[in-house]
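Rotation project, supervised by the postdoc (A.L.). Task for the rotation student: set up a whole-complex structure prediction and record inputs and outputs verbatim in this book. Inputs entered:
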Amino acid sequence: MNPFPIAWASLRRNRFTAILFIAIVALTVALGIAISAQERALRLGSARAADKFDLIVAAPGSHNDVLFSTVYLDPSAVPLLDPAITRLLLEDDQAEFVAPIGFGDAIGDAPVVGTTAAFVEHLSGGLAEGRVFTALNEAVVGALSPHAIGDQLEVSHGHGGATGTDADAAADAIAAGAAVPGGDGDHPTITITGRMQPTGTPWDRAVVVPIEYNWSAHGLGTGHRPGDSHIGPPFDPDSLPGLPAVVVKPVDVAAAYGLRGAYRTPQSTAFFPAEVLVELYALLGDATAIMSALTLAAQALVVAAILAGIVAILDLQRQQFAVLRALGASRGFVFATVWVYVAALIVTGAIAGLLLGWGFAAIVSELLANQTGVAMRAEIGSSEFRLVGALVALGLLLASLPAVLIYRRPVVDGLR
Amino acid sequence: MPGLSLAASGLRLAFAGEGIIDLPELTLAPGTLTALAGPSGSGKSTLLYLLSGLLRPDAGSVTWAGQDLARLGESQRDRWRRRHAGFIFQNFHLIEELSPLDNVLVPVWFDHVSAKAARPRAIALLDQLEVPQRRAHVALLSRGEQQRVAIARALIGDPAVIFADEPTASLDATSGQTVIAVLRDLALGQGRTVLVATHDAALRAQAGTTVLLEHGRTRHSEATA
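Outputs recorded:
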């Protein structure tokens, strides 16, 4: 028994409708695939981006805000960490290194971030070219920065109009009767001395300056005694200003948990980026689960609508099936022919949808990566195959319905 | 393949409470061409469907060479048609997207026969019936050629019985004459049992017997050739 040539002939006869049905199935599947693959790409990309930020210590407040401003360089208003806490951290032997992080300036659209050379080495895993900064007015750029070694750049205060960190710092300064950060500070021209390797984080687009530049530019000193022009640790405990965040690399896992516990005080908070991301992923996961369920329901409705259309089309071919029966074809053969016809539409649509969905997700990933700086790559994984498999299984099961309807039709009615 | 003999008796089929076929007796011998004639609605096609097992009578028997189709289930009647019968229709009912050769092979696809093994016979039948095989689609053939493809399709299984429903009604006179000659050869030359529902006087003239139906009953049966 070979139902394929007749099913193929039916597909060719109704080729425009068949293409339309395949396109509808493909688009519906693609939507589900794109959501699923993109959501995973977002999780993986954001998790990878936070890998090098072992432990973050900041002033008490929103972990999310600190994480987003420190790792993803998303400007937001965060309170400043008490310098006394930074002093303790700098002296803590459980920390391999302590990297102050400062924000608040920009060159064009690129954020200017202040930190230490040690953190640059840690984040980048060695520079791609040039050398790390050794003077206050030197900088390294991220791998995707358009600036070249030797470029001299003007730094402007603020970041894309959002100056929350500085606004807080300014408020603190006014309250203390001190110089307004950013208002009174000087922003000397910087010279690019090196380029970092790709990190898959928004730091790839950033200009990284010594933390001393950041403090100095906002009128907060340099973290060293007056006259001391060296860059990086050790800092003068009495000259340290407040900081939005400090990234700590613990000496080992036990130290990581020890530091996390020790710096959860009324004056500070300490957290692993992963724990914040897990909470975000849980929320994202719930939303994704709902969207996936809705997508699957939409897919089922589309398949049902297509099956209704197929029944109408096959009804127009009832004479052909009646003729086959008159020639001696069994009901089983007619059933198989119709089932193969419907299955071909659904399977072709699902495969096309898988590829299309992967394409959609890849495009969205690229757009998001460009927008956020977080490297992400959408890939088709087992969950997407399961999603398509579920739809195909449902489709193949539902394909029996038109097959049964045609199968049950009296032969003579079709011949008249 | 030699034809089969038919002995149908007491055949009744009611539709919506109204008797439409009421045939006390009908016998056919192998090697005969029999015409079922009568006005439209007289029950010619319905009788053809009854005698081929497409319909099961409410009463009576349709016995082909000792096998009563009225007592067989649907799948057994399907199998009987596959093994013993060929069908020719007024409008050919070919699958337009397929080549002439593939149309002839259609019955092979639902039988337990290798299409590869049946292919030489299909080609031979098309040659015999002078159908050009090189046309990619059967729709490109003339109507007379299409009906000859349909005849080849009916013959691919080498059936003992041929049922034809108005086989010349859609054809011009010349093509009709060719089909009549083929049907006559199948019966008288090859010994098959050929039963044709027709309005065509030329075809009736070539049939050995004409059974004239009126309102589902036999008005009379006459030897015509």
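Student's summary: Chain A has two domains: 4-46+279-415, 55-271.
Supervisor addendum: Residues 4-46+279-415 of chain A form one domain.
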